[in-house]
UniProtKB/TrEMBL annotation:
Enzyme Commission numbers on file: 5.1.3.2
Keywords recorded for this protein, A-Z: Isomerase
Protein name in UniProt: UDP-glucose 4-epimerase
Signal peptide: none
Record flagged with keyword Isomerase: yes
Gene3D superfamilies xref list: NAD(P)-binding Rossmann-like Domain (3.40.50.720), UDP-galactose 4-epimerase, domain 1 (3.90.25.10)
Top-level taxon of the source organism: Bacteria
One Pfam family, short name: Epimerase
Molecular function, one GO term: UDP-glucose 4-epimerase activity
Family of this protein: Belongs to the NAD(P)-dependent epimerase/dehydratase family.
Length: 308
């Protein structure tokens, strides 16, 4: 199958790229490399360097590559940045995404896989773990953009018959991750603990998240590939882990003990999050396979190599 992955040189996108290539699919990536790393590009992938906001260039790329599936992972991923710069966030995460979606519809693409966000879309949870039918009440521009694009995907399905697979990720972590994403706290902790700096915890550390390993996320992207039906699925573990618990676990893995600095909570961040994952298990037969401690160890090992 011929696939175009936007953001394919980024953290999650590159993991999806790797598993698609390994499965024998033809892969091209579209990335502007402001956050993506050329070192993460698979040697068998075709590379298009462009910006989603350039609609004409995006259209030409889709016309040239003629993918059957588009996997949209390119985004402005920093929730705090979206709060500080909502217009810029919308230009990338709504208008940029729309450029790709419009080109896909006009280019005969059969399936559009969209990297959404459970925590950001649902907002403060009324039910934990949150099912897919939980009210969508985003509290950040980042979340608003994700919900907006989900509505556009439904519109393009109704009007153009473009099937979609919306994957509402929990907090994805693992090798290659930066510090700005939704599970960036793990990278921030690792970097601080390995370099002897004082880690920072915002909001007291009682806030919880559902941490899912990037390898498991890549696997579900493979399992949904080619499913020509409209699907909206939570992708997580269903388990809550507090920031303080996460920090204590990481101190044990690194065999160090540093008292963190506590700062006030940040705007746009929810207090608790965990996703109900029964639907993806039922429909795709997928469930997360990597325990948190094992995934953190793999992430730590990778960062030790990077930091020398």
């Amino acid at each position: 199958m011929r696939v175009l992955i936007t953001g394919g040189a980024g953290f999650i996108g590159s993991a999806v790229q790797d598993i698609y290539v390994q499965a024998g699919h033809e892969v091209a990536i579209l990335d502007n490399f402001t956050a993506g790393n050329p070192a993460y590009v698979h040697p068998q992938s075709r590379v298009y360097q462009s910006d989603l906001r350039e609609s004409q260039a995006v259209g030409q790329i889709l016309q040239e590559w003629q993918p059957q599936v588009v996997s949209h992972h390119a985004a402005q991923i920093d929730v705090r940045q979206s709060v500080a710069q909502p217009v810029e966030d919308a230009q990338i995460n709504i208008l940029g995404a729309l450029n790709v979606l419009e080109a896909a519809a006009k280019g005969g693409v059969k399936q559009f896989i969209f990297a959404s966000s459970g925590g950001a879309c649902y907002g403060e949870l009324q039910q934990i773990p949150a099912p897919e039918n939980h009210p969508l009440q985003p509290i950040s521009p980042y979340g608003i953009a994700k919900v907006t694009m989900e509505h556009y995907l439904h519109f393009y399905y109704q009007v153009y018959g473009l099937c979609y697979g919306i994957l509402r990720y929990a907090n994805v972590y693992g090798p290659r991750q930066g510090i700005t994403g939704e599970a960036g706290v793990i990278t921030a902790f690792i970097t601080a603990l390995l370099t002897g700096q004082t880690p920072v915890i915002y909001g007291g550390g009682t806030q919880t998240r559902d941490y899912v390993y990037v390898g498991d996320v890549a696997q579900v992207n493979l399992q949904i590939l080619g499913r020509l039906e409209p699907l909206t699925l939570n992708i997580g573990t269903g388990q809550e882990t507090s920031v303080l618990t996460l920090y204590e676990l990481m101190q044990k893995l690194i065999s160090t003990k540093i008292t963190p600095q506590f700062l006030p909570e940040r705007l746009g961040e929810i207090s608790r999050s965990a996703l109900e994952v029964g639907q993806v298990r039922q429909i795709l037969g997928w469930q997360a396979q990597t325990p948190l401690q094992k995934g953190l160890q793999a992430t730590l090992d990778w960062y030790r190599q990077v930091l020398g």
